Amino acid sequence: MATRPWYLQPLTEMSDEEFGRWQQLVEARTGIYLPDHRRSFLLTSLAIRMRENGVKSYEEYYDWLLDGPRGMVEWATLVDRLTVHETRFFRHQPSFNLVADYIDNQLKLATGDNCLQMWSLGCATGEETWSLAMLADNCLKHDASAEFFSVFATDISLPALASAREGVYTSRRLDGMDPGLVDEYFIRLENDHYRVINRLRSRVCYSQLNVLDLNYSPLRGVHIIFCQNLLIYFSESMRRQLLDQLVDRLAPGGLLVLGPGEMINWDHPGLTRVAYDNTLAFTRT
């Protein structure tokens, strides 16, 4: 009887004790919390990588990940499997509308700066970051007093960052975008692919960052921090800790944009909630 392909084989059961060990490892190394209802997601992600490497048991794979430099190389690949890269250009339009309004009407009044610095956290494959860059360029290109803008983008996944840096997307990934923005900021390639123009690419810097290492980030005095669909992966206490650190990196008058519903009943003495429909955002006082 023929052996079924690996992708049709049932997942190996994981005991509660084993699941607890994996929970602790993932949270200790990334801050990501995996509640029990995400056990199947963890098992599927582990099983795919284990079968690719011919590893037979969760224990064997766990030990491999703890095996010095060899384990860290494999860990970098596994982390990419454990982080969801679902994103799209201008994913939450009201939040981008808020950013555009802030740049047009409030930035100089709030900060007095002519150089705009933005930070895209959990940038995945770059759609959010390029959206911010397009938006800023569109807002500032007719402003003679605007000297410069830059977007710093970070993510834990090296493969996602490589894709983001490349800045090449299929036409399907551009669905729903304003055709005028596509014409202005993309070059059409062969096989129905599009590449971000060099003028925009020169404004963006991608870098790997584990949010557990946020204290080591050199970024300070940032005018706009855009952090959406990232906090959902962390425990409540970790979310508050990360947000406190982000507030410290905002320039006075700077804008912090979160995903609606990502934080409930959270406030900070150094922030003021922004009244803008269907958004969750704060300015630093």
TrEMBL record:
Pfam families: CheR, CheR_N
Gene3D superfamilies reported in the protein's UniProt record: Chemotaxis receptor methyltransferase CheR, N-terminal domain, Vaccinia Virus protein VP39
Lineage top rank: taxon: Bacteria
Keyword Manganese: no
CDD domains referenced in this protein's UniProt entry, alphabetically: AdoMet_MTases
GO biological-process terms attached to the record: methylation
Keyword Disulfide bond attached: no
CheR-type methyltransferase domain mapped to chain residues: 7-285
PANTHER family: CHEMOTAXIS PROTEIN METHYLTRANSFERASE
Name this protein carries in UniProt: protein-glutamate O-methyltransferase
Biological source species: Pelagibaculum spongiae
